[in-house]
Amino acid sequence: MTVLRDGRPLIDHRPIHGLRRRVADLAPGVALCAAVTLVAVGLQQLEERAFAHPYVEALVIAILLGMAVRTIWEPSPIWRSGIAFSAKQLLEVAVVLLGTSISVAAIISSGPVLFAAIVGTVIVSILASFAISRLLGLATRISILIACGNSICGNSAIAAVAPVIGASSDDVASSISFTAILGVLIVLGLPLLIPLLSLGASQYGILAGLTVYAVPQVLAATVPAGLVATQVGTLVKLVRVLMLGPVVVGLSLLAPLVRERAPKPGKARKIDPFKLVPWFILGFLCLAALRSIGGVPDVAVGPITRVAGYLTVISMAALGLGVDLRVIGRVGGRVTLAVTLSLVLLLLISLGLIHLLRLG
Fold this sequence. Notes:
Largest sheet: 2 strands, antiparallel
Radius of gyration: 22 Å
Oligomer: single chain
Helix content: over 70%
Number of domains: 1
Low-confidence stretches: 260-276
């Protein structure tokens, strides 16, 4: 610290000025993403009032609105830093906060056979969906997004996995757009299988929990089948969502190794664990551990989860604002086919397990 002649210390204000400048740079873009989010949340609330359950969630609406804005207006540099910050850093914070939603009790209460069936379905579906996407000529990153979104929890899984594997805005938008469309269709069409396949309430609940993308969509798909189907479907879906944690951690370990070039002969590669596992994955695991030992009060879980949800929607609005629709147009047909085939495969796997293991 520098001292002036009169003995007064000279305080360095540069860090403060740098922070203010950073906030000023980010504010326009973040505010724009927040505005798109407010509109998306408002439209979801209108859906809930009209249909009791949202068929198209705010997360999907936000990315579609962002894409619509981007189509008619290209953001100038004054907006871009805030949009990029919202798409990456805010999404990473949301992933950290999702750690509080992990409940060991929910896993235990599902029973060993059903739990094993859920885990097996997710693993097989991820591998098969990835293989289908690659066979159709899709790039590795978008194939991973489709596989995880289809197999775990749709848009939320895509949003959580994207920063781990370094997916682009175009990849995320393509995956979410077509997954969202099929998500709505399966909610509307799945109840038709009850009479066609003579499914009982518990069997149908298991099927819905294993195949429908989002928790609200599971409710919408199972309410017509009765309370038992709704309870079973929700439990199965929650356990399925919990698979997101291990999958994200696994991808965080594999993705850097895949991207890195092979080490030169004679040189031993040093592995930095902090580079292999991103900070937000470590934060996710820490909060999950705290929740499991009672370090996060139950009363705080709801508000934290809602904050994570809003941050995710803001991030999706940012991704939409950065999307070039021409890129989506070039891969649209293949992405649609990949998501559709993956969903059909997931349905067949789920039905096979229900009858083979006599679940429900």
